[in-house]
From TrEMBL:
Domain Glycosyltransferase 2-like span(s) in chain numbering: 30-185
Name of the protein in question: Glycosyltransferase 2-like domain-containing protein
Pfam families: Glycos_transf_2
Keyword flag DNA-binding: no
Length: 341
């Protein structure tokens, strides 16, 4: 039963994506409280979990007290340094979970809005006894409008693992659960100058290690967009820059040895990856469990996919010719503003 798994499960929630914007500390507290109020209404209540951990770099005691009250249960708040990156924060949250009580750990983001049965659907696969998976990936999307649907085909695609039925080859760090020993063995590794590609690399490492990732499409969460258009444009640029660092990993995992030279081809390899992704994005439109776009809305969606992909390609091209704008260290500590209701 899900409640029996929940009794041995921890939820780790990081707040790195709430660092950005003006008056960030106050707005981070408001955004976190809004999210925890949603989590408190889950069909599988937070009180059923063995532990809830929230990492932060400066929430006030009053905010922590308010969040705990909304959760209706004790929360372990873990203070991290302001320079701690997004993935290191998740590792730190995992390290704060109780190894004796928590055999499973669910990871979520403070800038996502989960469906009311998200936690229940995330833990259901772990109830299958000997057939239970070691890793479960939920489904993440943006809002179900034209912009969100177009961006979902770019940022949140899931690729089937041909070796395992019902498994995906990739996952996203905002919506995933691990058996404790598996995450302890693999975890997130340092990738210098990379903003948000660590989970993709971990997905490839898990696939190479023969660890299938079960895809639970019903465990859905909605990722918010940055608060301003300027930050949304910056996000696209940084994702394009990430493609340069991600390309060697993709080539090693999915491409024959005769194409490995693309890893040292400057902008050619990353652009090839992004052109390939563009094809997948076009095919994914109206096939991602979101309301379908028809007529002029479909044309608008196609135009947005092309436009957003073009900005990504510009970022990748710039990185390929030596213009590295995300910083060579702690790139994933950079924060945009995700506070919109």
């Amino acid at each position: 039963m899900p409640d029996q798994v929940a009794a041995r499960c921890a939820l780790v929630l990081e707040t790195n994506n709430l660092r950005g914007g003006a008056d960030a500390e106050a707005r981070a507290g408001e955004s976190l409280q809004r999210l925890v109020a949603l989590l408190a209404k889950q069909k599988l209540p937070l009180s059923a979990l063995a532990q809830v951990v929230i990492t932060h770099d400066g929430l006030s005691p009053a905010t922590c007290e308010a969040v705990s009250a909304l959760a209706g249960r004790p929360i372990d708040f873990v203070r991290i340094d302001a320079s701690t990156g997004y993935y290191d924060a998740k590792n730190a949250g995992f390290a704060a979970t109780d190894a004796q009580r928590c055999t499973h750990v669910v990871f979520a983001d403070a800038d996502c809005l989960p469906d009311d049965d998200w936690l229940l659907q995330m833990l259901l696969p772990f109830t299958k006894g000997a057939d239970a998976p070691a890793v479960v990936a939920g489904r993440t999307s943006y809002a179900a409008n034209v912009v969100g649907t177009a961006l979902t085909t770019i940022d949140f695609m899931y690729f089937p693992n041909a070796d395992h039925a019902g498994a995906t080859s990739n996952f996203y760090a905002n919506n995933v659960a691990f058996r404790r020993d598996v995450f302890e063995q693999h975890s997130y590794q340092a990738l210098d100058g990379v903003y948000r590609a660590h989970c993709q690399v971990l997905g490839m490492r898990l696939k190479a290690a023969g660890v299938p990732i079960h895809y639970a499409a019903a465990a859905h969460t909605e990722h918010r967009l940055p608060d301003t258009r300027a930050e949304a444009l910056k996000l696209r640029w940084m994702r394009g820059q990430d493609t340069y660092s991600l390309t060697p990993h993709l080539l090693r995992s999915y491409v024959s040895p005769r194409w490995q030279w693309l890893a040292k081809s400057g902008p050619i390899g990353p652009l090839a990856v992004l052109f390939t992704r563009l094809g997948f994005s076009m095919k994914a439109l109206n096939h991602q469990d979101l309301p379908p776009l028809r007529g002029l809305r479909w044309l608008a969606g196609v135009a947005l996919i092309l436009g957003f992909s073009a900005v990504d390609m510009l970022g990748a091209f710039a990185r390929g010719i030596g213009w590295h704008t995300t910083g060579r260290t702690n790139a994933d500590a950079q924060a945009l503003s995700y506070h919109r209701p």
